[in-house]
């Protein structure tokens, strides 16, 4: 096994105190072990490089900063482009120089210091029984025909903050403010709860339409409890902006600024963009492969292909604070 179940503190102490093996790489991540372990095990089997993994629910950036120049971290894997951008801004990353990365990952889904590993789309779902359409634009969520029929997570939740940041990057502050007011006018209940809750509320008849991250749809499809009924009640729509492209967020990787095993760090990042790893990693959480050469995945089989919005994730990140301010200004979550 690549990762032995030991405490984060004990593992980090061992890494700091002991010499690093020539054929090893040290990974710090906020992702769940069950999602990462299959692909990490495959990496070690195929390359002979052992992966020492520190799983951190919170505080990854702060830990690496505290460890300073002696940090054993080689690679960081996190969820959400905002976390990747924050890691770069904190000065704990370094440029990834790799022809494999440049070829496998579209330009809008990477930065000099971090790269997308998988995508999760934010799409619209509707009642399978009550709504008879198969495609929609994000702009249509503001249509008064949905008044009293829309369920949505809190506007300040990171998922919606990123979506509104994308809308702002595309349309500017005035149009985004008007959009937020119109969407708020359509809600069936106060924005809140989780993405699976909106599917539950569609099943109950509280709402007819909602916005949700695709991996929740996949997880509900395999549920052995009431969530399978929630899945059965909804229909995912092909969802894009009016001029094309679906809003996505990501899981991503960066190489630590003081990586002691930089070559193996690059090797791990490159490996995770290959066909085997993209399938193992993405299918565990119904996330879409980022490598366009990987055509088959659990998410694609369930939901079809997704063409990401061309707006760079870095541009969306720059607009997230302004989007949050607009959410507060219109009282979206009140």
TrEMBL record:
Fe cation binds at residues 215-216. Keywords: Iron, Metal-binding, Periplasm, Signal. InterPro entries: Ferric-bd, SBP. Residues 1-22 form the signal peptide. GO terms for molecular function: metal ion binding. GO terms for cellular component: outer membrane-bounded periplasmic space. Coiled coil: none annotated. Belongs to the bacterial solute-binding protein 1 family. This is Extracellular solute-binding protein. It comes from Bosea caraganae.
């Amino acid at each position: 096994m690549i990762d032995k179940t030991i405490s984060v503190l004990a593992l980090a102490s061992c890494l700091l105190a002991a010499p690093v093996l020539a054929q090893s790489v040290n990974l710090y991540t906020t992702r769940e072990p069950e999602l990462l372990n299959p692909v990490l095990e495959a990496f070690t089997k195929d390359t002979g490089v052992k992966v020492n993994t520190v799983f951190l629910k919170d505080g990854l950036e702060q830990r690496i900063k505290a460890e300073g120049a002696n940090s054993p971290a080689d690679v960081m894997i996190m969820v959400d482009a905002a976390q990747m951008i924050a890691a770069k801004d904190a000065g704990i990353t370094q440029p990834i120089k790799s022809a494999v990365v440049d070829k496998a990952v579209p330009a809008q889904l990477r930065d000099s210091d971090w790269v997308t590993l998988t995508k999760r789309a934010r799409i619209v779902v509707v009642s399978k029984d009550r709504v008879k359409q198969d495609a929609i634009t994000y702009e249509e969520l503001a249509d008064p025909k949905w008044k009293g029929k829309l369920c949505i997570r809190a506007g300040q939740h990171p998922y919606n903050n990123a979506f509104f940041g994308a809308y702002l990057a595309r349309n500017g502050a005035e149009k985004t403010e008007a959009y937020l007011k119109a969407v708020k006018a359509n809600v069936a209940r106060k924005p809140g709860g989780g993405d699976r809750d909106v599917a539950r509320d569609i099943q109950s008849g509280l709402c007819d339409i909602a916005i949700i991250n695709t991996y929740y749809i996949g997880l509900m499809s395999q549920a052995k409890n009431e969530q399978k009924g929630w899945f059965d009640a909804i229909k995912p729509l092909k969802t894009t902006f009016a001029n094309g492209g679906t809003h996505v967020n990501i899981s991503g990787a960066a190489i630590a600024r003081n990586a002691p095993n930089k070559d193996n760090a690059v090797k791990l990042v490159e490996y995770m963009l290959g066909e085997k790893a993209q399938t193992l990693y993405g299918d565990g959480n119904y996330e879409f492969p980022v490598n366009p050469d990987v055509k088959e995945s659990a998410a694609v089989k369930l939901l079809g292909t997704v063409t990401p919005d061309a707006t760079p994730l870095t541009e969306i990140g720059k607009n997230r604070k302004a989007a949050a301010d607009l959410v507060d200004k219109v009282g979206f979550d009140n």
